[in-house]
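Milestone M4 deliverable, item 7.
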Amino acid sequence: MDADVTDSAGPPSDPDHSAGDKPQGRSQEEPGPEGGNPEGGPLGDGAPEDGAPAAGEETPAAAEPEHKPGAGGGAGVQTWADRPKDGVVAARKRRWLRWTALGASFLVLIAAGVGWWMYQKLDGNITTDTSAAAELKAYEKERPTPVVMDAQNILLIGSDSRAGDNRKYGRDDGGSQRSDTTILLHLAADRKSATAVSLPRDLMVEIPGCRTGDDKETRKQFTQFNTAFELGGTACTIRTVERMTGIRIDHHMVVDFNGFKDMVDAVDGVEICLKEPINDKDAHLELPAGRQTLNGEEALGYVRARKTLGDGSDTERMERQQQFLGALVNKMQSNGVLLNPTRLYPVLDAATKSLTTDPGLDSLRDLYDLVRGMRNVPTEQVQFLTVPRQPYRNNANRDELVEPDAGDLFEQLREDRPVAVVPADELKEAQDQEGKREGKQDGKPDDAGSESPTPTPTYSGSSAADDLCKQ
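Output delivered:
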């Protein structure tokens, strides 16, 4: 055999083992056949190669051949013997990553599907009032012109219809309804304040000629305010408010009893404090005195009760409604409802089920934009008040506006200027002190020449930050 010929595929031939039969991973120190070199190549005439130790001598550790992957011979065999194990781990890792990616994609698709279903459900809950929009368009020339474009004025109407699910709250007069509660909500252009002004249902106002549901025209008349909703629905009510205030109504919402109840239940109730127990059969309400949390049914009875609470006037009932709405807003903000989609969904579901709006607010996106604009308003700047009113001179059971106070309030809102509210007793005390100061003025030139900023008009009212249990 030629000394220069080597078997590059492995060890030399063996009588018992062919060249390709040698197990991979065999130790390199294992001597080759007939005492051959550890590299597995024959030595020709049996003499050691140049620089190789003589037979019987141990190979020094430093002299061990360098093992390089891919090199031929035993070194290559040992290195590749470890690759299958690394390859299995890498393959498993790749499979795990693929399954993880598939699982994540599947969850994303499921979440997107659920999200779309929820959106469609909420969006479909809302009823659009197209008839009101059409009638308002017909009377566009007589409507006020918006003064501050980014401010919004929304008319909130609480319907007292006894039809359908609401029949248990009273007699259904053939489907007729009146506006049991009407609130003019002004959102400042900078969205740093919100002012809700209650308009008494018994307020004597001038109602324009309106078109009824059976397409008849009513005559212009001077009567109590909630007659407008009974005669001509939402459009007639909006035109009456615009004529009275000079404020352009941008949007409207009509909410019935069930919508209010469900919203209270969606936030797990609202806490109030009662100085005296309540037992009002007409309002289906019986409550003990003290601190307590009202559920939806109890809350509805509380804001509707009239004859058995206070002096039985509608004015006191409006104040209770304002305070309760403030507590509801505070509950929603303090519990993070507006910022938590999981908690916000039940509230939106409850609200949209019993909500009728104009086409500009009839989608979930429109309502979300409205809520998003309000969620950063500080609770102390969410203010509630009743338009300045007093008993009507010709009928003490009706109301009339107090001027110029009411006109000043409407002008502030129309021009998007701020107003302030304080409890009634604090306002009276402040007015008494102001009267004393004016009586002591001596009219000196330096007093007349002093300049001071115009004070913010202050009215009797409350804010969402007020604690009903500390009053």
